[in-house]
Each structure stands twice: as structure tokens, then as C-alpha cells.
Amino acid sequence: MILPxxxxxxxxxxxxxxxxxxxxxxxxxxxxxxxxxxYNADGVGLAGPQVGLSLRILVIDADVLRxxxxxxxxxxxxxxxxxxxxxxxxxxxxxxxxxxLPGIHxxxxxxxxxxxxxFDENWTEHDEMLEGFAARVVQHECEHLTGHVFxxxxxxIRRQLNKGKLNNIxxxxxxxxxxxxxxxxxx
Length: 187
Prior knowledge:
Elements: E1 5-6, H1 27-40, E2 45-47, E3 57-61, E4 76-87, E5 91-96, E6 106-111, E7 113-119, E8 125-131, H2 132-144, H3 156-161, H4 163-171, E9 180-181
Parallel strand pairs: 1-9
Antiparallel strand pairs: 2-3, 3-4, 4-7, 5-6, 7-8
């Protein structure tokens, strides 16, 4: 089932997400719905808060980026209760966008390498070292679990330059090709 993507201004995007309990009902259905929602929106990652759930869960399928970023080949993950064990001091700036902030793209600095521990949808624990764009996607999605969005990482001047776009998202006056849940509906 395709879920609505919660847009900037929705309170759930600013809450610290809670751990997913092992007994979470219909976890595999949620994972399936999140992947379907992400694919429908042409995204490469989607976090629980982006579908209105303040839960520490995210899905990623960055394989579509494999031609430009070989580290993304076959990079499809479900991450439940992820936590970073290490982040490199070395960072790189690249342009990012977000399904919850349609029409906004900004350069963001992220660690080049990260080590992340998480559970998959079968509750198998993983400890993985990632680098390049795969590491960037994981950092971007994990940021949603802390109540932050990528625009928080840009300079005050860049945020000010995007203020009109952000206000339009909050007002519900942006158009998306995917199902969304804005703060206010268009009349």
C-alpha cells in the first residue's frame, strides 16, 4: 500500500523517533509499504517519520545510482533501530534532496565513511562499514530519526533563500507526483 509522504512542517518530522519493538505488529507489511511508497515517489530512501510514524526504521534502495556511484550497486537495506558506531572526520559536500522537502536541493556536508549497526526486518543484527554515496544516504535517512531534515545542515543564508519554498510546502501549495500529507490542504 502506498502511504502518504509527510511534508516539511508536519510535527512528526521534528520528533525524536522511538525504537521499534521486536513485537511490532505487521513489521514486514510496514517494510513492504515503505518500499512501495519510496518507489512510487522515485526516492532512494524513506524513514518512518516520513510516513507519519515516529519509529526508528528506514528503507533504502540506492541501486538506481550505481552508474554514478558504484558503491550503491545492490545497496538495498531495511534498517531498524540503526545507530552509528563510527563516522569519519573526513567530509564531502554534495547536493541532496528529500521527498519531505519537494523542490529543494542544497549541498550538505556528510562523513565520507560510517559504521552503522542495525537490525533488518528479520531481526538479524548487522554491523556495516559504508562509504561514499551509500554512507550519505544512510546519514540522510538516519537524520530523520533524530527530528532533523537536511535543510538544517545548510547555512542560515541558504535556509533564508529557501524560506519561500519551505513556506509553500507548509501551506500545502506545492505539487508532487506522489501521495503526500501536508500541514494544510489546498482549497
